[in-house]
Automatic annotation (TrEMBL):
Pfam families: NMT1. Transmembrane segments: none annotated. Belongs to the bacterial solute-binding protein SsuA/TauA family. This is ABC transporter substrate-binding protein. Gene3D superfamilies: Periplasmic binding protein-like II. One of its GO terms (biological process) is alkanesulfonate transmembrane transport. InterPro entries: SsuA/THI5. It is found in: Periplasm. Its main location: periplasm. SUPFAM superfamilies: Periplasmic binding protein-like II (SSF53850). Keywords: Plasmid, Signal.
Amino acid sequence: MSTFTRRSTLGLMGGALATPFLVRSARAGTAVSVGALRFVSHAPSYIAQERGYFAEAGLDVEFDFFEAAQPMAVAIASGDTGYAMTAISGGLISLAEKGVTKVIGGALSEEKGISGQKILASNAAFEAGLKTPADLDGRSFGMTQAGSSFHYMGSRIAAAEGVSLKYKPLQKTGAVIGAIKSGQIDAWSIVPHIAKPLADAGAVQIIGEVADYIPDYQVTTVFTSAKTAENETEQTRAFLQALSRGAADFNAALIDQTADEAEREAVIALLASYVYPDRSLEDARDPIVNGAMRINADMALNRNSVMDQLDWFKSEDLVKSSISYETLVDESYVDILS
């Protein structure tokens, strides 16, 4: 397999885990970099790090922080970052087609009964008549890049409502937030830990739920380089085992609420230090609690959702029509939900 630098990778992009959780299969102290966004959805990584689950699995983890999904895929493919957890994007799929990335698990999911990603309207657009997703025709819709998860969500919403959107790529999540707050874009969809505080502050209006349009959506996946998936199987399984322990703690504390109050508060405080490092715990608590969505147990993958996403990317000519599910996913690491 060829060696891919970050520069060459950018050119290429164009458009069952068993219990017990703990395995000591990786070499002790193996240095591993993990890509992350400062989102509640990255909770398994943060919990596994702070509670020593990575260390117990023989991994010495450092985080690489990003502001969008596609640059994270570039870093994985180039070898600058070892593992990551983020949405499927056109860039990730294209890199898989080139033989340099592989999805090895599932993470964040939409689930009926759990408040998920929100469809937002700017205040200006709302006052001008954008009250529901059915009113989106001709409106501008924010996204980071073409072929991002925001592009996919917008397209699925638009198709269901029979409307047309004008997509505005703004590169970074922070830029999209600024654009919708200022009325430079009319609409957006985003995870609840961002959406709800914006709405509570009166900066935007919530006009719908993504789950109503994409039920059981596999929002994010775990992925690595194809080279790592093929050659570092023990390390990769150890990483997934540790990540699964973090996911179990998160779900128990904030989704299923089977943990006691002390544990719940401990998890909230831990996440606040990563997701909102510049805020007090008091200010961070509500966004974290209100933004919690299910992380798949054992990092299992919703195959049907991934296949639907892949089919959409193909239909929009954002990736080659020849790319198969097997090209994207290495199921030797994956429990399948459906």
